[in-house]
Amino acid sequence: MTTPDLTTQDLLRARRTIQDPVLLEFAAEVGSSDPIVMVGGNTQSHLGGVADPNARSLRAPSGIVKYQPDEMTVCVRAATPVSELHAALSEHGQRTSLPDGTNLQGAVSSTVGGVIAVGRSPVTRLKDGHVRDAVLQLRYVAADGALVTAGGPTVKNVSGFDLCRIMVGSLGTLGCIADVILRTRPINRHERWLKMVDADPKAVLNNAKTAAAILWDGTVVWAQLVGHQADIESDQARLPTSSSALPPKLPPFRWSRRPKDLYQIGSEAGRFVAEIGVGVVHCEQPDPQGGKLSANVEALNRRVRDLFDPHRRFNPGRSVELL
Amino acid sequence: MKLRRLTKRNHQNSTNNDPCAADLQATLGDQRVHTDSAARHLASTDASIFTGGAAGIVCYPSTTEQVQAIMAVAIKHDRAVLPRGAGSGLSGGAAPLGNPIVVSTTRMNRVLEVDLEDRLAWVQPGVINLDLSKQTSPFGFHFAPDPSSQQVCTIGGNVANNSGGPHCLAYGVTSSHILALEVVLSSGEIVELGGLDSEPTGYDLRGAFVGSEGMFGITTKIAVRLTPNPESVKTLMLSFDTVTDAAATVSAVIASGLVPAAIEMLDRNCVAAVESFVHAGFPTDAAAVLIIEVDGLSAGVSADATKVAEVAQTHGATVRVAANEDERALWWKGRKSAFGAIARVAPDYYLHDTVVPRSKLVEVLEAVYEIAQRYDLTMLNVFHAGDGNLHPLMAYNSRQAGANERVAAASREILELSLAVGGVLSGEHGIGVEKRDFMTDQFTSADLAQQALLRTAFDPFCRLNPGKVLPAAHSCADIATLSAAHADGVWG
Amino acid sequence: MKISGSKPDAPAVAGVLGLDQTDLYSCVACGLCLPHCPTYRVTGADTHSPRGRIALMQVLDEGKTSLTTEIVEAFDTCIQCRGCETACPGDVPFGALMEASKEVIETTDRQTPWWLKTALRTITYPRLLRFGSSAVALAQRLRLLPPAFRGIPQRMPINRQQLQSSGDDVWLFTGCVMDAWQRNTHFATQQVIEATGISVRLSGDGAPCCGALHTHAGLGRQARKLANRVVSALPGDNPVLVNSAGCGAAMKSYGTLLNTAEARAFSARVLDIHEWLAERLNSLKPSNIAEHRQPPIKKRVAVQDPCHLRHVQGTHGAVREVLQPFVSELVDLDDDGMCCGAGGAFSALQPQLAAEVRNLKIAAINRANADLVVSANPGCAMYLAAGGVDVCHPMELIAQALNDG
Ligand SMILES: Cc1cc2nc3c(=O)[nH]c(=O)nc-3n(C[C@H](O)[C@H](O)[C@H](O)COP(=O)(O)OP(=O)(O)OC[C@H]3O[C@@H](n4cnc5c(N)ncnc54)[C@H](O)[C@@H]3O)c2cc1C
Ligand code: SF4
Ligand code: SF4
Question: How far apart are CA B289 and CA A54, in angstroms?
Fold first, then answer.
């Protein structure tokens, strides 16, 4: 009783065959031999070392491929600016957890692919979670020029090993991201930024149940409260006296700390803004403790890169340890 | 036939003269190394219906060092190694192929540290999921992934399968709740993946390890994120006259911009089985029941609950709200006992775990019932509807001639159907051995080759849980590891 | 790879163990029972789990193996607490499967040690048990020695008077071990029953032992003999009240054990003292219950549910109901009614495993932070007391409250 249903088989085959001419063209452009540097919005190209100037530079395709508001997913090409994506999603009251700069002063024109390659979450991580958790499927061109699908289009998926996770935050050193399917989420019903001078950041963390972000620069605490209006208001009543304010401008470098170690940050950091409850510290200088890995883990990282890109085609000169 | 008496000869067992067993016993002591046929037979299956090989030797370490010592012996004797948690997996992940050394983590069951300030806990892999939440609950925290098997499954198993659960709709699956992992690699090295700081350096090897189904390493220590218990919870039981109405309600709720903590569906057959166990007042006359839970802060929760009820009523639902915590607990007990309650229906069950786009739920469910009817199988549906994660469950009797064949044929149709509408093979149970040979239906060989690279980076020797997940053409030297014949002394 | 259990058209007739085939294969191996099994909790071994034990019954029954030391050990280490049975959503009758398996194993291969057999014979001779010094020695071996002998203080003075019937409204089953060592529990029980205005007829030496321990050891023949004796010693229609959860469970199943109309009628009369009392709380002298705004016993009391009350009889709720009016604070343990390790003769047969199971229970008791523990089964009470737990029977607590009030 196993006569194959032709239409099903056809659908299956079609599903596995990537037909999008834009992707095929991109794959051909990436090719399978020479060194390549991928450029995104160029907002974070200082990260992870300096790319080899002789490498061919390449831009991924852009544009929204398919937005399904009812499924809460969107398929978008890598070079699409996050702000453009969010503008389209907002028409259906949705957004993604990718940082788009709207929560912070100053416009950021980062691209979807760039944000994913860097893998850094927005300051609203307390509510929005990690960027990597928003990535459902990712198509990339591997070092041998093959178009590869990692993950799957549904909101839940454990079919096979998790290539998406290893790609997020890999600085484009393992493959050239072509397009991604992202989980969308409803735009916050209400949100407001508050400023509390001389407040205890720990107390704010423990009391602000609606907080999506709590920032602290050593004296001032900023918090973004999101959710139902009444819940925000009862939160605000529990907090020290506050006034509404815009969030602070963030210094360019990120230090990675345990959340509970933030309160001890002292003058060595210079001017800083710390993400309370998360552990990221935005500083004026690079992290003196950054980039250290145990020998075993470093070897494992190297093995991953050696296997995925044996000839160091992708972003030569940059590496995740230098991130 | 009569039961044969215990004889001296029976004291011996076939692996007694296995030099590998002798080395393990010398290193770990007899109590931690079981070589008898009973122990090996029982470590040859999990909660699925798959068997292949048999456990060669079963070890019960308590510490990371003991796991490392086992790996050293395995390397010396070139043996495969299979980590095993509670054996509640449903895809044959912990069912050995060949005859590996099975490393049971059930004695690695200590909660090592609870850090409430950083909202995390370090646990050994054998800690039972629900035990951790029970232990942290008095302090106002829990471990969010809540597989329906949470009373039995281990956190190590959750990590290996990237398990989900009803509440993962809002809180995310296991991967979102794992901060760091201590892992013993097949080389015997110990690595710490991820970290407790906000942005650990390097590739996200932690993320790669989660969901690796015992094939990348044995995790021996896990830092999990603890989630604050919600301030307020409302649980609704919605009953419908048709499965279609229920499925349409799921899409409508999601489309209305709500993100409930959980949306679970049970169909009529399932409600009947469950109700006779829990007596929780599940409506046995309904065609389908949805359990929808909203949680969070009180104002938001009551607004959301009202909205859910409104949406459901426009689809013809009868709405009940759990009156108190006891009733709520009973409803969940019912939901989470569903697979076990199948024992009331038939002695065997087999279920799938595909995910389909939510908008296809109605179409797929109808097709699934039709497939079951065509193959003369009892079909029950109980699943994580909010994610589109189906669990079409076939209840049957494997002792009936031809039953296995009918189940296998129906399974193939269900899997292909799910993929054809844009779904995936597995939402949370993993590929294991069950869906291994279907991987080529979802992925191209280029995709699978990249997955194999990841495996190779972690386990170049293909020593760990060989033969799983990747179809034969993509599983490096797994075949060689498996070549050892079916072990003697274990009953098939 | 193959799908396991492919046994095309396997015969529906009984196999080697003679087990009911539907029951034997009703387990779907989901594993939900595992964490509720005390022995699995202690050792983490599948051979010590309900799912594993059922799988071993299957291979034995199918004739795939003869007995091995390890299989016998897997069965011997089962406390027969039936925690797995309550946990199983599929209603797998584990207790019945295990009892039947044990009986076949026992007849095939003598498993029960000589001293246990002697002890089990002794407890059917009440006088011998009460006065014989050899009985004390055996009891020591059985770990059934009452706390008093080990210097653990008693909450109620041991009443040295003879128990005496006060009428014949109800039977009170006095049993064997308990009558000998815990007569104060019987006094308390009798006192509470009488406080409701009901007179008590004691079962006495004619019904010396319920046979539960014999059933557990696989000594089916003796168990049936004892059951017959008990049935004929307690004639009439009046309720038979039992204050030992283990005995009550056994007597409620005489119907199935003996499979006679008479036995079934008898079993229907058997009631655990708490379930009986819960229906009559209002008839306790009003001064003792209603007028007390404040419960007379100002203690935080933890309820330890004996397995044979919770998992077999399912009447553990009644213990809380009857205690509520008398105790200021009642708390449940957080272990879902896990066994304490006593398990009839289990603690004597598997002392080390039993002690580890008890350690889990003691940890749960400590987490409950209670002043006192009540247990409705004397075997559990004594075993816990021997582990240093302050424990008494619920009836003793109620009797004390009635006396104080
Ligand atoms: C009644 C029932 C309900 C279920 N409900 C759900 C559900 O709602 N959601 C869900 O996601 N799953 C569910 N499952 C499936 C199963 O419980 C989960 O997959 C669970 O995480 C498995 O855990 P375990 O400890 O039993 O692992 P096992 O079954 O013992 O092993 C599973 C896999 O993990 C590997 N593994 C175990 N420990 C380690 C370790 N320390 N290091 C590396 N690898 C390891 C094994 O090799 C194997 O590949 C259910 C199962 C049952 C029987
Ligand atoms: S009766 Fe008790 S000890 Fe025996 S398997 Fe069941 S739970 Fe475990
Ligand atoms: S006895 Fe019941 S709970 Fe235990 S594995 Fe079998 S079906 Fe599941």
Answer: 62
Q: How far is ligand 2, taken at its centre, from the CA of residue C53, in Å?
A: 9
Pairing of strands C327-332, C297-304: parallel
Report the atom number in ligand 1 closest to the C-alpha of B427: 11
Ligand nearest to the CA of A157: 1
CATH pick for A8-186 out of 3.10.310.50, 3.40.50.261, 3.30.465.10, 3.40.50.300: 3.30.465.10
Q: What is the mean pLDDT of residues B427-445?
A: 95
The helix or strand, by DSSP H or E, that contains position C128, with its residue range, turns out to be helix C126-131
Bin A81: left if φ > 0, else alpha if -120 < ψ < 50, else beta: beta
List, chain by chain if needed, residues with CB within 6 Å of any ligand 3 atom.
B 340, 343; C 27-33, 50-51, 54, 84, 87-88, 90, 92
Q: Do domains B232-340 and B346-420 have the same CATH topology?
A: yes
Nearest to B423 by CA among A136, A19, A185, A20: A136
- C163 Cβ neighbours under 8 A, 6+ residues apart: C174, C179, C183, C186, C187, C190, C202
Report, as an integer, the average pLDDT of B276-301.
Answer: 94
Residue of B nearest to A8 (CA): B420
**Residue C83, ligand 2, Cβ within 6 A:** yes
User: ∠ CA(B300), CA(B304), CA(B307), 5° rounding?
Assistant: 145
Q: Which of B358, B360, B310 is nearest to A72 (CA)?
A: B358
CATH no. of B19-107+451-483: 3.30.43.10
- The interface predicted TM-score (ipTM) is 0.94
User: In this model, does residue C9 exceed pLDDT 50?
Assistant: no
CB C361 within 8 A of CB C342: no
- Nearest to B191, CA basis, from B161, B200, A289: B200
Is the pLDDT at C103 greater than 90? The verdict is no
Helix or strand run (H / E) with residue A183: strand A176-183
pLDDT in tens, A228-259: 999 999 999 999 888 888 999 999 899 999 99
